[in-house]
Specification:
8 helices, Rossmann fold, alpha/beta, about 20% strand, about 40% helix
Length: about 230
């Protein structure tokens, strides 16, 4: 799942981005309201987290503009403005939740997951499955042959990407940008190591083998031909 964060304070923005990525989400970070509006209108986001006091376009204006093109996208305001009038204004403009700074990241994460469960995509399947491999997106749990598989946040995100695009060969550049939010470095083996560790957990002790390396192209998760 992908989240848009619009936050002009660098330390807070980077903290949010890193924490949400480690929790298994894809994250785009905008530093002002106009950039946030451009990303929000062009991107396919499951949720937006907005500050109120933003340069070029404040959070109230940004939310109003987003609601015209993305009426069903859940929106969480995260701001230092803690007056009751501000909270009421945010909710009346169409925000789904309002969290005041300073905040505990655990609470933010709980609210994000609650909004995602209630959001416009709640009608989509919340479990991905191929053969005996099942990924529960809400409980953040993986099962293989009925046995729970312990995955790190990155391994879970990688497996989710592979399952969502079952049968499609995913280039290393795409995996790097989606999971590690970085440009692919041909000298780095971070992707190979991650795939190898994931394969050890879901393939080594099970049949059929699902993850395949396509030499010179990337990786694919699919049932082997019969």
């Amino acid at each position: 799942m992908k989240i848009l964060v619009v936050e002009d304070e660098p330390k807070t923005g980077d903290y949010l981005r890193q924490g949400l990525i480690e929790a298994g989400f894809g994250v785009d970070l905008a530093r002002d309201g106009l950039d946030g509006l451009h990303l929000g209108e062009q991107g396919d986001y499951d949720l937006a987290i907005l500050d109120v006091m933003l340069p070029r376009l404040n959070g109230w204006q940004l939310l109003a503009a987003l609601r015209r093109t993305r009426p069903d996208m859940p929106v969480l305001f995260l701001t230092a403005r803690d007056l009751v009038e501000d909270r009421v204004k945010g909710l009346e403009l169409g925000a789904d939740d309002y969290l005041v700074k300073p905040f505990a990241f655990a609470e933010l994460l709980a609210r994000v997951r609650t909004l995602l469960r209630r959001g416009s995509r709640s009608q989509e399947p919340q479990q991905l499955r191929v053969a005996d491999l099942e990924l529960d997106l809400l409980r953040r749990r993986a099962l293989q042959g009925g046995r729970q598989i312990d995955l790190t946040a990155k391994e879970f995100a990688l497996l989710e990407l592979l399952l969502r695009r079952t049968g499609e060969v995913l280039p290393r550049t795409l995996i790097a940008s989606q999971i590690w939010d970085m440009n692919f470095d041909s000298d780095s083996n971070v992707i190979e190591v991650a795939v190898r560790r994931l394969r050890a957990k879901i393939d080594d002790d099970f049949e059929p083998k699902l993850i395949r390396t396509v030499r010179g192209m990337g990786y694919v998760l699919e049932l082997p031909p019969t």
